[in-house]
Amino acid sequence: MQKLPTKLYTAAQVRELDRIIIKEYGIPGIELMSRAGNAVFRHLRIKWPNTKTICVFCGSGNNAGDGYIIAGLALGVGLKVTVYALSDPESLKDNARIAYQDYSKANGTVTLFQADHVIKADVIIDAMLGTGLSKPVAGLYAEAIQAINKSQSRVIAVDVPSGLNSDTGSVMGCAVKALSTVTFMGLKKGLYTGAAADYCGEIFYSSLSVPKDVFNRVATTTSRVIKKTIPPRARCAHKGDHGHVLIIGGDRGYSGAARMAGEAALRVGAGLVSIATHPEHAALLNIGRPELMCHGVDNADQLSHLLDKAKAIVVGPGLGQSKWAAELFIAAIKSAKMLVVDADGLNFLSHVPEKHSNWVLTPHPGEAARLMHCATVDLQQDRYAAVAAIQAKYNGIAVLKGAGTLIASNDELAVSTTGNPGMASGGMGDVLAGVIAGLMAQGYSLKDAAQQGVYLHGMAADLAAEQSGERGLLASDLMPYLRQLVN
Description:
Elements: E1 7-9, H1 11-24, H2 29-47, E2 53-58, H3 62-76, E3 80-85, H4 94-105, E4 111-112, E5 123-127, H5 139-150, E6 154-158, E7 180-184, E8 187-188, E9 202-206, E10 222-224, E11 244-248, H6 255-267, E12 272-277, E13 293-296, H7 300-309, E14 312-315, H8 323-334, E15 338-341, H9 344-351, E16 359-361, H10 365-372, H11 376-380, H12 383-394, E17 397-400, E18 406-408, E19 413-415, H13 428-441, H14 446-468, H15 479-485
Parallel strand pairs: 1-8, 2-3, 2-5, 3-4, 5-6, 6-7, 7-9, 10-19, 11-12, 11-14, 12-13, 14-15, 15-16, 16-17
Antiparallel strand pairs: 1-10, 17-18, 18-19
Helix pairs in contact: 2-3, 2-4, 3-4, 6-13, 7-8, 9-10, 13-14, 14-15
């Protein structure tokens, strides 16, 4: 698998990279376009070497220029090429026009796309819209996208699938569903969160062989999370060296959430884990996992000695919304300890918003919408903006769960690329909360605990799915893989 850069860019930032390369480094735009087209064509030849027919969809901008270069390269090696233009290619400007003219000189032909065209090709190249999209796709472009998605062909998107917002990962009306996306210069933020996972397929990257120092000229505060090496333990280590986690949760009927959070904290290396839960089931909670120290608490007074012992606290898994739950939640957030606030803890927080520098908030989109008092569908339109807004409102670290989980601190946005659809099952969030708290208890900063916790949690799910499949994946299936990953 290709090793991708960690920095992520907006479309505007990539345009600035383009400008610097052309104006200050003297690399002509048509040369960059040629390199981009060649990168896609190389990918095509490597990925599907038996391809005999391709269909290239070209729009009206620079993305179309890439498409005409790809079409010309395909002609040059004897492939059967059909080019569908979404606008008159004679109206193309600048480098895109040059690319079209070169294709024409090579005896390439162009067909103006119509909705009734039947698309038949081994591979379709999507070179229609690129990163400049600012409004929902409509008209002939929407019909072309529909035709591509209905076809049985393999699809490669050039730079970004047409219709996908390259900054947010949201679909602008409709979008091409690609099996591969070959992106250039700077990795685009929108390829890694939101709906992007259903549209990009596998992402491949080309720097276009530009000087490496160019990338230091444009500042970005967004990056992909990369797994950090966990140093080995000292031979004389004891349990007190690795922190004490307290899980607060488990109202009547919801004991499993606290139990899973507690085991997850242990599996990533916390030295001790206590659970403060409803007295009704406290004695039964650690059956099958006796390493968990379970305490029945009736009120905040009975919680105080457990708070004193803890280095990191998780409040929320299975907590419920009762008076008992509210009392324990208030006691937890008034403590001076590091906190992970999850599940019902977040629901309480949405009613009495506070700011703390020592907590990690871990909402799924529905909980995030309640925290921000907006509709979930609106929040999901720009997940980067949403997680940044949550962090600004509540301070600390905000984690917005979902496909392409985002982690926001006051100086950085990060996205984790691990995880799979099998994680859409009960208890996964409880395990994540325990993982993050377990890392915090061992000395990780809040930001590192959140970023690495999300990454490890998703990777454990990937390993479990690789072993037995995504469907039917349970939160408790992650436990052995979490232990494997931290070792």
